[in-house]
Design a protein that fits this description.
The protein is about 35% helix and about 25% strand. The chain is of the alpha+beta class and about 300 residues long. It is globular. The model is unreliable at about 20-35 and about 115-135 (pLDDT under 50).
């Protein structure tokens, strides 16, 4: 062992340091230690991932894999744009359903109508034609280079604009959120982690026949079966197997923009109380085969 070449000794030291930092992380170590771990282990994980790529090329799959990855990167960007448009459409549908109520509230005596007229068209326009507020998303695509327990490591970090508390997606839906970022790699917490809780809504159909805002709630990860535990804050909310569950949207759209698919309801639990409804949700993403992902670095 003492005759190891210097690069081999450096690699061994980096692997040992990574093991120590991971142990500290599992025991609740400080966040700066996790950031240091990302900076130190990033080059190691990238080197190991790169070392495996020539094997695919030798098998004649190198070019096909590159094409598949590029197609997935394009699909992720297109899917993110679609979700943003659909979320904006859902908000518009909600506003449309509320307009009759607003107009009824605006039925006032003639003198009040006169005052509203003096206020100009802007006052009336706020209710009859509310702005849709469509968001423009910026997505940084990356590749999964390592996986451990409830997290994966991706090959994009702060140099690419990736930072903690950003949503990570595939073309199928939500893949998690960034919890740590180094210069060239980042750590992503999967939704199936017991510590992961995400605000969601169960998609419903409104009076216009278009999807409208459904009941709000949360999903929490379940490591034992890879499902998500759904809890809605409305005991009377309609809930059925096959119903889509999507992100509710965080304040400032960080970490989660609205409308990103989280999964579909697989089993609805019997009512247990008068305040909430519970169910199990199958994630939209297959986490065991994660490869190319997108980090939403700007949700507009």
């Amino acid at each position: 062992m003492r005759f190891l070449h210097r690069p081999a000794r450096v690699l061994a030291l980096l692997v040992a340091a990574a093991a120590v930092l991971i142990t500290l992380d599992l025991r609740g170590g400080a966040s700066f230690l996790r950031s240091a771990g990302a900076a130190m282990t990033g080059p190691v994980e990238q080197a190991l991932a790169a070392a495996a790529r020539p094997l695919s090329a030798l098998a004649g799959a190198g070019e096909a894999r590159r094409r598949a990855e590029e197609l997935e990167r394009r699909n992720i960007r297109l899917a993110a744009e679609l979700w943003a448009e659909r979320a904006a459409g859902t908000r518009d549908a909600q506003r449309a359903e509320l307009l009759p109520t607003y107009r009824a509230e605006d039925a006032r005596p003639a003198q009040d109508a006169g005052r509203a007229q003096d206020a100009g068209p802007a006052a009336d326009g706020r209710r009859d034609a509310p702005p849709s507020g469509r968001a423009r998303l910026t997505v940084v695509t990356a590749q999964v280079i390592a996986a451990r327990d409830d997290t994966v490591t991706i090959d994009a970090g702060t140099r690419a604009g990736v930072r903690p508390d950003l949503a990570v997606v595939t073309s199928d839906g939500l893949a998690g959120r960034v919890i740590e970022a180094g210069p060239s790699v980042a750590t992503v917490l999967l939704p199936t982690a017991p510590s992961a809780t995400i605000g969601v809504r169960a998609a419903a159909t409104g009076k216009t026949g278009r999807e409208s805002g459904g009941a709000m709630g949360t999903v929490t990860g379940r490591r034992e079966d890879g499902l998500l535990a759904l809890r809605l804050f409305d005991a009377d909310a309609p809930l059925r197997p096959g119903q889509r569950v999507e992100t509710l949207g965080s304040s400032g759209r960080t970490p989660y923009p609205p409308g990103v698919p989280v999964g579909t309801v697989e089993r609805v639990d019997a009512a247990r109380d008068q305040l909430t409804r519970t169910a199990l949700v199958r994630p939209a993403v297959t986490f065991g085969t994660l490869d190319v992902v997108g980090v939403i670095v700007d949700a507009g």
